[in-house]
Write a structure and sequence with these properties.
This protein has about 110 residues and is mainly alpha-helical. The protein has five helices and four strands; from the N terminus they run E-H-H-E-E-H-H-E-H. The chain has one domain. The chain is globular, with a radius of gyration of 14 Å.
Length: about 110
């Protein structure tokens, strides 16, 4: 089974202006991924980082929609020392400026 960590930028893509071809294609890809997660063919990972980032969205409609999209994502990765250590390691490698990816690679 494919296990995917989608950051909030990806989750918001279907709500972006679709007038640019690239944005429309990215939105379609995200919708396809979400369909596979909803159909239980793939698994979406949720985390403290995703929940926190969603909560900071200035658009309440997008915030609500994205929260609903991620409610069934499992497993849920909580921030702990292991995740923090992995985040620092990834940041040290230059792989993740914010370390959010560490939630997806325990």
């Amino acid at each position: 089974m494919n296990i995917l960590y989608l950051d909030v930028c990806c989750l918001n893509r279907p709500f972006d202006d679709q007038s640019q071809n690239r944005v429309r294609l990215e939105a379609e890809a995200v919708v396809l991924i979400l369909s596979n997660i909803e159909g239980r063919e793939w698994q979406g990972i949720n985390s403290d980082a995703i929940v926190q980032e969603i909560s900071q969205s200035p658009d309440s409609d997008h915030r609500q929609r994205v929260t609903i999209m991620t409610e069934d994502f499992a497993p849920y990765i909580e921030a702990d020392e292991t995740v923090g250590d992995r985040a620092q390691e990834l940041i040290g490698f230059g792989l993740s400026r914010h370390g959010r990816a560490s939630f997806g690679v325990r």
